[in-house]
Design a protein that fits this description.
Sulfotransferase_dom; alpha/beta; globular; EC 2.8.2.-; 10% strand; Rossmann fold; Sulfotransferase; sulfotransferase activity; P-loop_NTPase; two-stranded antiparallel sheet; binds adenosine-3'-5'-diphosphate
């Protein structure tokens, strides 16, 4: 069936677009009342940077380090599935926040939000923030397919039309470039660590060890290896109906580095390189993300 127009599907708040079916002014107001804890694990990443992947990684690291019993793992899974700890405006539900307050374990909070829109308590609490970034070209491609497959998002009739929208932030969740510029202001914060999708794909074991160290988990080689196997693209895709329902079919697409080469024209690639330079030249984040 025909999808509705962009303006019907997206809601603009402080210059950034969000899915209108899921959020409004009230959810943004409520969002600010969220109370972070100092031991929260915050996973921040723009849409399509691999947030679902890292969410599973953090969850598995936590479960393994805490040495939960099977029953405790199941109980924890039921609660987290129900409360769905994604901290985005569409989940600005006061009831949910109240229940999250009482959770009897270390919380994992995933968010696509720009830092200036995050609840103030997150920075005040000094909770650790893992910032997940991805080459903008691959993020753009992944998000193109996502826009066109998700019924709640506007679709684009061509790659070119989408590319222009992505470059100007006229897509759900705003400009990825602005997002990077804003987060770059926090890369030197003592509670922030940056990880790239590419470095994790290149060597997941080293990546997982870095993440485990950052959040203070001590796991042995074998445990790290098990977490890595469980969170490989293939394993997650295979298990996706159980973890994500039918949404899993849309989410686990290719899981590779460099798919942009099959989508970008030469001129588009150059345009994005220029934009990236303009936004992040001589910054730590820009250096880390060099692709
Ligand atoms: P592609 O569309 O390029 O395949 P998010 O979870 O933030 O929405 O990101 C989705 C992207 O992460 C998709 O990229 C998806 O395939 C990829 N992804 C999901 N799980 C992954 C995994 N275990 N390893 C590598 N990539 C993964």
């Amino acid at each position: 069936s025909e999808k509705a127009a962009l303006e019907d599907l997206l809601f603009s708040y402080k210059g950034i677009l969000y899915p209108a079916a899921l959020c409004n002014l009230e959810t943004f107001r409520v969002l600010d009342s969220f109370e972070a804890r100092s031991d929260d694990m915050i996973l921040a990443g723009y849409a399509k940077n691999g947030t679902n992947w890292l969410h599973q990684v953090l969850n598995d690291l936590e479960i393994t380090a805490a040495k939960y019993t099977k029953e405790e793992i199941n109980e924890r899974m039921n609660i987290t599935n129900e409360l769905f700890v994604f901290l985005c405006p569409e989940f600005g539900d006061p009831e949910k926040f109240k229940r999250m307050k009482e959770l009897p374990f270390r919380r994992i909070i995933v968010t696509h939000l720009f830092p200036q829109v995050l609840p103030k308590s997150i920075f005040k609490s000094k909770a650790k923030i893992l910032l997940l970034v991805r080459n903008p070209k691959d993020t753009a491609v992944s998000y193109f397919h996502f826009h066109n497959n998700m019924p709640t998002l506007p679709s684009f009739s061509s790659w070119d039309e989408y590319f222009a929208a992505f470059m100007h932030g006229k897509i759900c969740r705003g400009s990825y470039f602005d997002y990077l510029v804003e987060w770059n202001k926090h890369v030197d914060d003592e509670n922030v660590m940056v990880i790239t999708y590419e470095e994790l794909k290149e060597n997941q074991i080293i990546g997982l060890k870095k993440i485990a160290d950052f959040f203070g988990f001590s796991l042995n080689e074998e445990e790290i290896q098990t977490v890595a196997e469980k969170s490989s693209f293939e394993a997650m895709k295979e298990n996706s109906f159980k973890t994500h329902g039918t949404f899993g079919k849309i989410l686990f697409r290719k899981g590779i580095v460099g798919d942009w080469k099959d989508h970008f024209y030469e001129a588009q690639s150059k345009e994005m390189d220029r934009k990236f330079e303009e936004c992040l030249e001589e910054t730590k984040l820009g250096e880390k993300m060099k692709y």
